[in-house]
Description:
Elements: E1 2-3, H1 6-10, E2 18-19, E3 21-25, H2 28-41, E4 45-49, H3 77-85, E5 89-92, H4 105-123, E6 129-131, H5 139-146, E7 151-153, H6 189-211
Amino acid sequence: MRVLPLDVLVAWKDDSDAVALSFDDGFANFATIAAPLLEEHGLPATLFVSTSHVGSTNAWHSPKQGRHLPVLGLLDWDGIATVAERGVSIGSHGRTHRPLTSLSAAELNDELAGSFDDVRRGLGASPVFFAYPFGAASLRERNEAAQIYDLAVTTEMRDLSKDEDLHMLPRIDAWYFRTPGRLESFGTPAFDRYLRVRSRGRRLRASVNRLLGQDGG
């Protein structure tokens, strides 16, 4: 299986299996654990950073959302610049990690355009990729992101299609590969069935959470 940069993957015309690697939030341990391994094996990757939290922690969750999540340190701009020098592409994950669908038009612009400006100031280079916090994106958010970024990724759990919307790209969380042998089954009918089942379960949980007023997890 090939590992390609995100922008190369979406333009990939070969029938062979290929993936792109991406990491959200910009945890400090990305620089000490993931980045050296990626460099050692020559694997391209994209790191999406929440720009208002750079150098702080991931304590942006509500008590309900974060009750099972550890609070971890995030890279500062120098740390982000260092991993970028090692070949990691840096994208935006918004400013505050709030779900964009809950924001006013002005707040949405601040998250999208403001985080673009933050990365440009912090690194001296403009980001071209965006990751929707919590994967939350309706047509409004998609259209706004398309005005600023070349590509944007969701958390929709499926393979890429041939005529993919470049600003609503799916991603499969590594959590779903934790079972031994699951990664090796990627691209098989069995793995496709597994994804469909897990996707239905995720949609059901999201519907229940909305009914209970716990949206945004």
